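<goal> How does this chain fold?
<sample>
Here is the protein in question

***
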Amino acid sequence: MSLCVSCSAARPRPALSNATTTVVAVIAAITFGASGSAPTPLYHQYQESFGLSPLAITVIFAAYVMCLLGALLTVGSLSDYIGRRPAVAAALLMNIAAMVLFMTADSAIALIVARAVQGFATGFATTTLGAAILDTNPKRGLVLNSITAMAGMTLGSLGAAILVTYAATPQLLVYLVLLILSAVEAAILFFMPETAEPRPGAMSSLRPHVSVPRRARATLARVTPVIIASWALGGFYFSLMPSLVRVATGATQPIVGGLVVSALTFSGVLAVLAVRPVQASRVLAGGIVALASGVAITLGGVHAQLASIMLLGTVIAGSGFGATFTGTMRSLLPLAATDERAGLLSAFYVVGYLSFALPAVLAGYLAPMIGLVNVAEFYGVTVIVMAFASMAATLLLQTKRQPV
């Protein structure tokens, strides 16, 4: 009898197949993206309920971004040392805790705490789930990882806007849906195969590491303006765009602002998929033109007070957003050796996420002083100038390299 008990105890735990793990990990990564964008359509309700200013809204948003960046720089590679399964479980449990904090939030401080926990969970999950997807599906892993965040942000902003517009108690329901999804994913991924065996060095891996290989520095310098421009545009959309739609067009239904916000990331996903066969330099140049043109059309929609024109401009700008993202990544990563990629990616994300948060906070600070429409105009023009500055730097570099 004891032998049977011993045999039963030694029996290996059932494990998911690689294909199933990939599918569930992709869904989980999309859920994290959706969790990050879901509060956006709720900001107007929070403003009315808690008396929040535009600055407070952008500070709440910035708490999410800065903690996400902090996680990327500290626990980003932790799953390489402790294993994918415990790291995935920890990230999902933190996301569940964040959803509970959102459902019980009753002040700006409570929302900042919820956003901070959510941001750290998302940063932890971004690298861990991304690595798990690459481990279990090396062939399609890069493509899947390039679209999960934007697909999630699309579903989160649009889904939350629908619930805010048509459902009762959306401040509870939005987060309850995401909580249940996270719990189900945690239960399933508990049985995922472990693709990274635990090894020493976990504590030293928590030390932030940012470095740019010498041969990548010139390329990073010339694409930095468009990185700042595209990520700053995303930060404005996910913090203040619903308010701008309401102020500029008079459209009070949250679904309208949600459609405009989700159009940015949805068109970005389509662009990433569409330009896969195109050379990186051409993708980047086309993305810059689309980004600038889309922003200009969106500002035209603000002046015309027409949400339809704002939506059209957002779709064009979103395609530029996706193209510049994949174009910059494809331009930079081949310039780094395998053991240099983590440091280069860290540098890329530091620039990106700081651009995602800080300009939006400045916009929130200026909005009560000069008006949200005026802030949007200045913001949009700055994005256009930064985008074309990157193109000018590229053309100048190409001219210098041509033989005399």
About this structure: The mean pLDDT is 91.
